[in-house]
Write a structure and sequence with these properties.
240 residues; alpha/beta; Rossmann fold; 7-stranded parallel β-sheet; two-stranded parallel sheet; 9 strands; 42% helix
């Protein structure tokens, strides 16, 4: 699973899946540009990578994934440091789980800005470079709820269905440029994402962020002629 010297951008990298993926890819020799809103968490991630003597590098750029100027700065940082972009992992996202009549307009707008607009903004910022290179890989960390719904999940599932549609159209647009698009659909992951937090007894047997990181390593390390269009992963304990 060779990612040596690949330049990989990861959004939502301050915690959970994004953080675990950044560390694992750097351990395997990738140069990783990480972004999230928390500058302190990103600095800690950089420090951990440096002190851990990983083979690759981690460079942090704090920013809002829904901001065009912030994501342009992330892309420019990758080019300034490493001269190319090989993979963009759209991982930033969060959930709000309420019945429809309990969701506020502000909650709707904020979640859609991160989960959906953020995916668009970072992808759009990187696309000119990927097209000019004639290669690249765009990964979107969605959820298995991009393909199903549940009560109390109208807002979150709508955002994931939107990501699914975005990927489907994007895939048709960029394949002729040598650019891969992969949708990652995870089941239950034991992380900060859930209300009861990481490590709660109710999360026993769920996927760990490190499991998702291993999945990401597999996806982005395939040979140039191989693309995994969709990758769905669940804990054995979860029915689907």
């Amino acid at each position: 699973m060779n990612v040596e010297n690949k330049t990989i951008i990861i959004s939502g990298a301050s915690r959970g899946i994004g953080r675990a993926t950044a560390l694992l890819l750097a351990q395997h020799g990738a140069n990783v540009v990480v972004t999230a809103r928390s500058a302190d968490d990103l600095s800690q991630l950089e420090k951990e990578a440096t002190e851990g003597h990983v083979r690759g590098k981690i460079v942090a750029v704090a920013g809002d994934v829904a901001s065009e100027s912030d994501m342009a700065a992330v892309v420019q940082t990758a080019l300034d440091h490493f001269n190319r972009i090989d993979v963009v992992i759209n991982n930033a996202g969060y959930g709000v789980f309420k019945n429809v009549d309990e969701i506020t307009v502000e909650e709707w707008d904020a979640l859609m800005a991160t989960n959906v607009k953020g995916t668009f903004v970072l992808t759009k910022a990187a696309l000119p470079t990927l097209k000019a290179q004639g290669s690249g890989h765009i990964v979107v960390v969605a959820s298995d709820v991009a393909k199903r719904t549940f009560a109390g999940g109208s807002l979150y599932t709508a955002s994931k269905y939107a990501q699914e549609a975005f990927m489907g159209a994007l895939r048709k647009e960029v394949r002729s440029f040598g650019i891969k698009v992969t949708g990652v659909y995870s089941g239950l992951v034991d992380s900060h994402f859930h209300e009861k937090g990481h490590g709660h007894e109710t999360s026993k047997g769920w996927l760990q962020s490190e499991d998702m990181a291993e999945s990401m390593l597999f996806i982005v390390s395939r040979p140039a002629h191989v693309v995994i269009d969709e990758f769905m992963v669940h804990p054995l304990s979860q029915e689907y």
